[in-house]
Amino acid sequence: MEEKIGKILAVDDNEDILFALKLLLRPHVEVIEILPGPERIPEMMEKQDWDVILLDMNFTKDAISGQEGFDALAQILEIDPNAVVVFITAYGDAEKAVRAIKMGATDFILKPWQNEKILATINSAISLHRTKIQAEKLRLRQQEISAVLDQPYTDFIGQSPEMYEVFNTIKKVAATDANVLILGENGTGKELVARALYRNSLRKDEVFISVDLGSIPDTLFESELFGHEKGAFTDAHKMKQGRFEIASSGTLFLDEIGNLTYPLQSKLLTVLERREITRVGSTKPIPIDVRLICATNNNIHQNVAEGIFRQDLLYRINTVEIHLPALRDRTGDIPLLADHFLKIYSRKYRKPIRNIQSSAIKKLNQYSWPGNVRELQHAIERAVIMCEGSSLGPDDFMLSSPVRSSGGLELDSYNLEDIEKTVIEKVLKTNQGNVTQAATQLGLTRTSLYRRMEKHGL
Known about the structure:
The protein is α/β, with parallel strands linked by helices and about 450 residues long. Helices cover about 45% and strands about 15% of the residues.
């Protein structure tokens, strides 16, 4: 037995037409409802989600111009922009039917019709509507996911002067189309910065495509970024759009751009200069319009000086540079970040852990964090999983090295006065200028620290 698919609403002022449609479609569709005029269309659309609306072009009030049909079409599409409307019209109204297509109708059926043809048209219209619904569901799901992932500063928090500078740069640059280069060590949050730029940009309603260039072999670079035609190479069984083409009108994030080989840098530069790509196996250029954000953990300016990275490509991608500080250079943010991750993982693993003990925070502050914020996040997650109490203590954190080596100090001399000044400057910076915290860390009273600051002109 043939499966019945589709819910159809037929609107026509001719009772014979309605009867014929109902008789023809009843064996093939789930629901077929009829209306003698367009007046009750809004009411029927409120009650049911119709796969196809069959709409007469001319009604008794105006049996010539088709204006009632056009008005009804406009009303339907205003209620539901994804509605699929198929006009029913006489041979002499073919010109009006073309106008209806331009206004948003999906197709038209000429009277008198052939049963096979009208069934084929309606089946195609049902498939179109269900595809539209599925696409809308996917779009809404993508928006929901993006709303979580792309909140301006999700997991990207800090109160240090270095982070305020990053936040301020994002605010200034986000709404422009300027190409941005994000520099920072692994784990500092380069993709979070890219997403914050995207979320606050004029392209926030378009796609955000992230590409890890370090994971793409050189042989697949062009195919992945620019796409390929069917048969372009052995495994090219069908046409594939590249990341640039998919990201057109949106934002393209190229992570680890510093890992590109020199020949691939040249190909990328050509695309950025011409603002067009050519799929592998094709000779037809395709225009692209992307907002480009790149990131690397390399010292890219040194790479340029050494001839490893093209200077002209650097100038194309670094209209604005954002430098992310290492976590060891903003240790004042560690308690804030640790508390943030504690809340996330306590909830995730259903652990009644209320806080992190001050002695544990001290241990975290003394660690060098070579993996930066990502390593801190994983350390908190692991501690939450293993903890059996209501707070995290020092023993809950299994860190690879116990303390930071000399605080990252670079000494120009071994003069004790110079060393004292350097240490005080470093501790004040670490504590974001908080003299009380700095004095405690140095083992001094506030008064003693103020005297030493005055002595060194700090």
